[in-house]
Amino acid sequence: MTDVPAGRSIATVCLSGTLEDRLDAAARAGFDSVEIFEGDLVASASRPADIRSRAADLGLALALYQPFRDAEGAPPSRFESVRRRFAAKLGLMSELGVPMILICSSVAPDTIDDDGLAAAQLGELAGMAGEHGIRVAYEALAWGRHVSTWQHSWDIVQRAGHPALGLCLDSFHVLSRTSQYADIAGLPGDRVFFLQLADAPRLSMDVLQWSRHHRLFPMQGGFDLPGFTRAVCDSGYRGPLSLEVFNDVFRQADPRRTAVDGMRSLVCLKDAVRAPHGPLAPPPALSGIAFTELAVDGESGPELQRWLDMLGFAHTGQHRSKPVELWEQGKARILLNSGVVRRPGDSGSAAVSAFALESASPAGSARRAGQLLAGPLPRRRAGTEADLTAVAAPDGTQVFFCRTPGSDRGGWLDDFLPCGRPPGGDTGITGVDHLSLAQPYDRFDEAGLFYRSVLGLSNDEAAEYAAPFGLIRALALRDGSGLARLALSVPLLRRGEWAPGVTHPQHITLASSDIERTAAALERAGARLLPIPGNYYDDLAARTDLEPGLLALLRRVGGMYDEDTRGRYLQLFTPVIGSRVFFEVSQRIGGYAGYGTPNAPVRMAAHRALAQYAAGGN
Ligand code: MG
Fold first, then answer.
1. Residue 34 has pLDDT above 60, yes or no
2. How many angstroms separate the alpha carbon of residue 389 from the centre of ligand 1?
3. 334, 435 contact by CB (below 8 A)
4. In 10 A of CB 449, how many CB atoms?
5. Spatial separation of the C-alpha atoms in residues 529 and 519, rounded to whole Å
6. CA–centroid distance, residue 151 to ligand 1 (Å)
């Protein structure tokens, strides 16, 4: 079994704010050391001695100072200035109390392509550092002028043969160039001085731009971080696992959240490296969405009641101590909570404030969440009410874990006084297919890791599409049974002021066993579903072999259609209720595995057109 070092470190460049903000955030999230990024120190109002004592007070070791650029391969005329600059940094590091400096491979245009010269110069610098008790970690940048692979940097380190000179391995620089890293396990571990970890999405682009804008924390991208980390650990490396990630979101996000996100990624990575003997208990099996809670107000509440009634739900229970209604149909349960305090000016709004997952072990799910830095939310409950544990997802949605009893009721359902009505149910609606939750721009990758790690979900379908008001990135996740599905989405660029579409839309997709029956029931109830434009059906007829009867049905009821190699998907939509919530009714036929994503742009435009119509526009 791979022995993973305990040290957990983060580079200050991962976080935003002043250097003090970054140190505080790292300490709060549980890191035991940091890498000091030179630019962060230079910009700080604090002197090095103050930084040293602040870090010590926070319990943070300063593990590494970085980067020192354009050192090796310098023409002799320039190397004198390299020496002077290096000496100054060694003095600074002694003030800071940092025991290691990172030298990254040169990118300067005048760098000489001569390994002998590079080794001699690095050896000389290591000698200078050694006199201060400082070690030098040499890192091959993926875009280094002459040294860009870990093998080449190792050749030079061996050639220099100085005990104060070793390697820094950075997963981005290695994995952005090659998937051949198994030989790293054969390196002498005491010559690997430092390990920096970053993931990234698989992109075809200039590697420097890829690195600067798109790095992600481990387990958030497409690189094999567990395999790479295992290889480095198997070499005998004993230093910290250190996160070195820069991307456009982290540079402006709250550093405290980013630090927690980073720590969660390290917990997941360690678990994956040591699998099946990782520190985390396996996630308990999930078997569906037990309920979805909508926060409503005096305007949106009655409107949602009307729609639930038309959809065939029955108001079956009233919470014993809170202003919460339970509506049921089949296994679909919606809670309307009018006790949520709203901000002034937020009237008419409704939002998914919570959802509950059926778990084989609610206590086990909560325990795993705690191990992944998602502690239980404080809850107010009367003595006899069910003790449900909730944790906060990155967008603030409360996620409950529960086990709903069978037909004899009991459990959390006993918190609701019966209204004397049986659950609704002659419309074909049987349960909840999935929840779709738009994510805040800054939290999308964090949310993906949260749901994968805390709930044990897997990536299902990833897509990017052009919507009427910008590019949208979507990621669907599901559990092993396929009964608990979530669909996340986010605009690819931060929204500007002109955002006339539904901002941060959320929808509950209700599963129907017979969408024609559901549509007929809605028609009888007088529901006016979202009208879909005729152009859509003309296009559908042109690009598919749909039976004329089905095409006519879709056209008549405002249905949409998608198919994959395994089956078909039929959809209906309500208008937006309040400012951001709507319902979808879907029928999966055969083994269709998607989410109707190709229809999303047309549906979005239809919601916009309906809103314009309602406002009297054109
Ligand atoms: Mg690096």
1. yes
2. 40
3. no
4. 21
5. 9
6. 16
CA of 72 to the centre of ligand 1 (A): 17
pLDDT higher at 408 or 84:
84
The Å distance, Cα 196 to ligand 1 centre, comes to: 6
Angle between helices 48-58 and 76-96 (to 10 degrees): 50
Ligand 1 mean position, distance from CA 394 (Å): 27
Q: Is the pLDDT at 617 greater than 60, yes or no? A: no
Distance 158 CA to ligand 1 centre (A): 20
Predicted pLDDT of residue 87: 98
CA of 395 to the centre of ligand 1 (A): 30
CA of 172 to the centre of ligand 1 (A): 8
The residues, any chain, with a CB within 8 Å of residue 404's CB and separated by 6 or more, are 290, 358, 411, 412, 413
pLDDT one-digit tens code per residue, 240-251: 999 999 888 888
Is the Cα torsion angle 365, 370, 371, 374 positive or negative in sign?
positive
> How does DSSP assign 151-195, residue by residue?
HHHHHHHHHH--TTEEEEEEHHHHHTT-S--GGGGGS-GGGEEEE
CA distances from 269 to 10, 86, 305 (A): 14, 35, 45
The DSSP bridge pattern shows strands 61-68 and 100-104 to be parallel
pLDDT tens digits along 284-340:
999 999 999 999 998 899 999 999 999 999 999 999 999 999 999 999 999 999 987
For residues 324 and 334, what is the distance between their CA atoms, to the nearest angstrom? 10
State in Å: Cα 200 to ligand 1 middle: 13
140-176 per-residue burial string, b: 16 or more CB within 10 A, e: under 16: bbbbbbbbbbbebbbebbeebebebbbbbbbbbbbbb
CA of 138 from ligand 1 middle (Å) equals: 10
Average the pLDDT over each of 401-415, 564-578, 600-614 and give the range with the smallest value. Answer: 401-415
Q: Is 524 exposed, middle or buried (0-12, 13-18, 19+ CB in 10 A)?
A: exposed
Q: How far is the CA of 192 from the centre of ligand 1 (A)?
A: 14
